[in-house]
Specification:
This protein is an alpha+beta fold and 137 residues long. It is built from 3 helices and 7 strands. Strands 1, 2, 3, 4, 5, 6 and 7 form a 7-stranded mixed beta sheet that branches.
């Protein structure tokens, strides 16, 4: 798998201790009300990593240093309406972050272990794929 391959979206696991952050999506998106990872579309001229960092900053106000974004791979993930080519990252946070919801597309945050996450019925299908089929974390 070529990790420098251009993806349509970039998402990531923001990890603190044994948990990772999820955001509840709101608005008119197909995933409204479901929990998912921080991330979004890769804009023209951006690398996958640049898109991931920008989305984290926009959605939760956390700035990630270059050395802290580990690419876990690029995956084809099923969204209710189509298949997306998604670059997936993992960042280990040294301190519990202060979250700011600047984006209107996110509502709440929650920190869960992998087991607690997969036990929920309200996580995005693509997130379940990453955890149960691709075993990324």
């Amino acid at each position: 798998m070529n990790q420098s391959e251009h993806a349509e979206a970039a998402v990531g696991f923001l990890c603190y201790e044994d948990k990772f952050m999820l955001l509840r999506r709101q608005g008119h998106q197909s995933s409204a009300g479901e929990w998912g990872l921080v991330g979004g579309k890769v804009e023209q001229g951006e690398t996958n990593e640049e898109a991931f960092k920008r989305e984290v900053s926009e959605e939760v106000g956390i700035h990630i240093a270059t050395e802290k974004a580990e690419c876990l791979g690029i995956f084809d993930l099923i969204n209710p309406s189509r298949v997306w080519r998604v670059a997936v990252y993992k960042t280990i946070l040294q301190e519990f972050p202060e979250i700011s919801h600047a984006e209107a597309t996110t509502a709440d945050t929650i920190w869960l272990t992998k087991d607690a996450c997969t036990a929920r019925d309200d996580i995005m299908k693509a997130l379940r794929q990453l955890l149960e089929e691709h075993h990324v974390i």
